[in-house]
Design brief:
Helix content is about 40%, strand content about 15%. The chain contains 8 helices and 6 strands; from the N terminus they run ββαβββααααααβα.
Length: about 200
């Protein structure tokens, strides 16, 4: 199969914390707001003192992955600095960068209240073929909170009180790779004495 040639409207982005690796929509389909955010984001990478991590993604049409790294204050359970790494389309990178801006200062309940529509609005809209990245973003918020409560605080019952993951829900099916799901499976296996 011949390699596809890059053209003037083929977006191609490489920085240490963001990689666009799949064939993407023409850059003209992205808002200036989203493109400016990606070009100027100060939140790429892992912030000092990060104690919570998540990774969510999908692989059906090329790898798309969002990783969030957060500093969570253990006394107030609010987000401090948040960083990210993202692989995939510009929309995925924009969603991760937006979350890194939106989460600092929020409690877990406030973070969980962030909607796909809010993220989309802050980005100035994402192309219709990339709307799934908004689902990945809301799942990333759940996953980073879940990581803190399960791994750091060792309080899975608090996680269950905040939200439940619904098996075979649209969000769960769209998010093929989820670090929170992996942590829950590992916890179940440990409880059963399997690992």
């Amino acid at each position: 199969m011949p390699k596809q040639k890059l053209t003037e409207d083929t977006p191609f982005l490489r920085t240490p914390d963001m990689y666009q690796i799949e064939n993407d929509a023409p850059i003209t389909e992205y808002s200036d707001t989203l493109l400016d955010l990606i070009a100027d984001t100060p939140n790429g990478g892992v912030p000092d003192g990060a104690n919570a991590f998540c990774s969510v993604g999908k692989e059906k049409r090329g790898t798309v992955q969002m990783q969030l790294f957060a500093v969570v204050d253990p006394e107030t359970e609010t987000f401090g600095n948040v960083g990210f790494r993202s692989h995939g389309c510009l929309a995925a990178i924009g969603c991760a960068a937006t979350l890194a801006e939106m989460l600092p200062g929020k409690t877990f309940a406030e973070a969980l209240a962030i909607t796909k529509d809010e993220i989309n609005e802050r980005l100035g809209g994402v192309p219709s073929a990339k709307m799934y990245t908004l689902i990945l973003a809301t799942c990333a918020v759940k996953a980073v909170i879940g990581d803190y409560l399960m791994r750091v605080k060792e309080a899975p019952e608090e996680l269950d009180a905040l939200f439940t993951c619904q098996s075979l829900s649209v969000d769960c099916l769209m998010t093929e790779n989820c670090s929170l799901r992996d942590e829950r499976v590992d916890a179940y296996m440990r409880a059963c004495g399997e690992i």
